[in-house]
Amino acid sequence: MTTQANPTFPSTKPKILVARAIFPEALAKLEESFEVCSNQSDKILTPEELQKALSEVEGALVAGSERIDASALSQATNLKVIANISVGYNNFDVPAMTAAGVMATNTPDVLTDTTADFGFALLMATARRITESEHWVRGGKWDQWSIVNNPLGMDLHHSTVGIIGMGRIGQGIAKRGLGFGMKVIYHNRSHLSDADEQACGATYVSKEELLRTADHVVLVLPYTTQNHHTIGAPEIALMKPTATLINIARGGIVDDGALAQALQEGKIFAAGLDVFEGEPQVHPELLKCRNIVLAPHIASATEKTRRAMVDLAIENLCAALAGKRPPSLINAEVFST
Ligand code: DGY
């Protein structure tokens, strides 16, 4: 890690940690106002390195790779804010941050459409066997056009998409589905307002009904311990053998071992995964499946959106260090105390 402190005159600028590589322009902007300890090598800090780095700063920009819990915060006596460059914040132990008086922030809204686009792309690639077809062509297996002996997929248009987790991104996927003439059903902790349901053309159903009736199941719910293995063998057993399963939520929402077995046994048609249990490791049995599309957690990965996420995280950090309420504060009670 490098720090940009003036070696001759002690800096009076607040110290911050940038725990992962960010865009050079963003880093340069931070260096105008802060003494920056930056990990531009992008090698993920060990828990010990993170604990030490947090003990020396007033604010930090982190990503999902940094677990922020009581241990990470145990020596962080001057820390005021940790800004996640991510909308999901299952890497945060929010009660521990609140107990330590540390503001927690994330990056909602700026990635909604990009992530919904990707969810839809993964759904299309999975249902229409696009990556499998590409491997087939590259492998020299395509010798003629055929009515039946080509990779035959499942239709999206006029099918039923079932969305589990109907926040902003889930609603974005629903709206894209409407453009394809899809029937949209959803399951969520709470019902949407009538106006939001109407805007998405979506109908609330139980999880069981969704799994039984959807042609395509899309997971967009946040990871919590209650949501661990929301989809395991019993849930997959409810799905149609022609159905697809798409996970753009978080690893751990799906039991990847059970999914691999179901794909290998043809219990469902196919799956598209952007997130994995224990990523970047991928369950070895998933890698053996033909009927799967795999992506390396890139749903929000366009340059414009990643820049917007970094910019919002910086805005959150700067507001907190200036004594103002960060725009996307998670634990409001820390600000009011
Ligand atoms: C998010 O913002 O939550 C993305 O999944 C990146 O972690």
Notable features of this structure?
seven-stranded parallel beta sheet, D-glycerate dehydrogenase, Rossmann fold, binds (2R)-2,3-dihydroxypropanoic acid, hydroxypyruvate reductase [NAD(P)H] activity, alpha/beta, 13 strands, NAD(P)-bd_dom_sf, D-isomer_DH_CS1, NAD binding, 337 residues, single chain, 2 domains
Give the fraction of residues assigned to helices.
25-40%
Largest beta sheet: strand ordering? 9-8-7-10-11-12-13
Taken in chain order, the helices and strands follow as EEHEHEHEHEHHEHEHEHEHEHEHEHH
What structural class do you assign from the helix and strand content? alpha/beta
Instruction: Characterize the main sheet.
Output: 7 strands, parallel
Q: Report the uncertain regions.
A: none
CATH class of the largest domain: Alpha Beta
| Amino- and carboxy-terminal Cα gap | 33 Å
Hetero compounds: (2R)-2,3-dihydroxypropanoic acid
CATH topology title of the largest domain: Rossmann fold
Q: What's the multimeric state?
A: single chain
Shape field: elongated
Number of domains: 2
Question: How many extended strands?
Answer: 13
Mean pLDDT: 96
In DSSP terms (H or I, runs of 4 or more residues), the helix count works out at 14
Second CATH tier, the architecture of the largest domain: 3-Layer(aba) Sandwich
CATH superfamily of the largest domain: NAD(P)-binding Rossmann-like Domain
InterPro entries: D-isomer_2-hydroxyacid_DH, D-isomer_2_OHA_DH_cat_dom, D-isomer_DH_CS1, D-isomer_DH_NAD-bd, NAD(P)-bd_dom_sf
Family: Belongs to the D-isomer specific 2-hydroxyacid dehydrogenase family.
Protein name: D-glycerate dehydrogenase
GO molecular function: glyoxylate reductase (NADPH) activity; hydroxypyruvate reductase [NAD(P)H] activity; NAD binding
